[in-house]
Amino acid sequence: MEEPARAGPRVAADGPEASRDRTETAEGEPGAAETPALGARPAHRAYARRWVFLLVVSLLSCSNAMLWLSFAPVADTIAEHFFLSTEQINWLSLVYLVVSIPFGVVAIWMLDSVGLRGATILGAWLNFAGSVLRTLPCVAVGTLHPFAFFMGGQSLCALAQTLVIFSPAKLAALWFPEHQRATANMIATMSNPLGILVANVLSPALVKKGEDIPIMLGICAIPAGLACLLATTCLWESVPPTPPSAGAASSTSEKFLDGLKLVAPPLQLLRNKAYILLAVCFGGGTGIFSSLMALLEQIFCASGYSSEFSGLCGALFIVFGILGALVLGIYVDRTKCFTEATKISFCLTSLACVAFALVSQLQGQTFALAAICSLLGLFGFSVAPVAMELAVECSFPVGEGAAAGLVFVLGQVEGVIIMVALMALTVRHREPSFSTCKHGEDPLDWTGSLLLLAGLCTLFSCVLVLFFHTPYRRLRAESGVSPSAQDMCPGAEDHESNPEITP
Fold first, then answer.
1. pLDDT category, 449, cuts 50, 70, 90?
2. How many alpha carbons fall within 13 Å on the CB side of residue 417?
3. 70 Cβ partners below 8 Å, 6+ apart?
4. In 39-85, where does DSSP find H-type helix?
5. Distance CA 437, CA 79 (A)
6. Rounded to whole angstroms, how far apart are CA atoms 63 and 131?
7. Of 10, 218, 314, 493, which one has the greatest count of Cβ atoms within 10 A?
8. Using CB atoms within 10 A of its CB, is residue 101 exposed (0-12), middle (13-18) or buried (19+)?
9. At residue 264, does pLDDT exceed 70?
């Protein structure tokens, strides 16, 4: 399946009135008259069905995240019911990170070669198949190896994640006009933590005892089936017939393999210092939050907090992250202050992470922990869509799928390393404790692990603030044809005047 060819700039041969008619959007609003270097007036059009595509990608991402963390908030109950160890339950979450490393590169290639529509439909079917496979140990009487079914289902869902998680930046670039790109990216990106929120609230609410597990698994499969149905029936094309913006019309974004050739043999993105710094720091932040969400219930139960409270803190984490992303997405859409917003958010996140590492080891600090988790989400999760847009800006003209996808793959690599290190640094409590963990073993001491987590978060923040500088390459490329691209954050002019590499 190939993407339809993008419509290039159209020359107004019928006079100014006909040219102006062609610049109207599908929603009846006049588009901005663009003036390319050759004096042609291209037609840009924003189709109303872009919102359907955004809905499908958002629902699929939300469902995939639900399936990822549906086991983690009730890890003790599942381990006890199916006679599994907590390490096995942790691997049901960790497999997402492991699978996405080798298959992430394949997913990037598929997005650029097969097309956004084909990749989304394939991801939807993998996600639905995985959700069904996970339920088999509960509905098939006498299943001997439930862990194999759980791991198989999670692995299929992990494959789907690689096709879904890279889509927001590409979807925003191909379907949305310039003034809506960051907002569209924010909506699709924040659907993933919304799924984590649902899992953190739903799993503890549904699973009070082992017999409740089938209900939880069945309910988690419903949105996966709905996303699969919508993706198969409602997505008709990968790109719109007429591009929505000057950046989409110019067709300067390279496909994945060509993009790698642009920026260094064998992997020329390695020559882009700004991109590498952002990828390492933001990827590390992604790994930290993935590990924290997967281990949150185990960290809290060792200090005497219930699984319901763990679910509440996870929910606060996501709710404030979504609210912060909404405000930040609208702000950077208007100001184009990508770098400044990212640096400030990283610094505030590191402070909240240090506070979490210290307070989470104390008993009876429910209010303080709830407030800290809210701040972690507000500052940490909210920056994700902005950082993805910044990755596209500093790596342009590499394709959006490659730019955002490689950041994510590196984040998964760092996430695996961080999560394994956190589990390795834990030790068993031998003295009496306030533990509410149910797996029958001595509770774990997470002090060393959490201090490592806080130290890494602080390190990534310092490196990003001190050493990351970049021109906004996509905005600069568009500025010759799009007057609105000049309306950017004052700090962006400084970035523009000091490029680090010329693509």
1. confident
2. 13
3. 199, 202, 203, 216, 217, 220
4. 50-69, 75-82
5. 11
6. 9
7. 314
8. middle
9. no
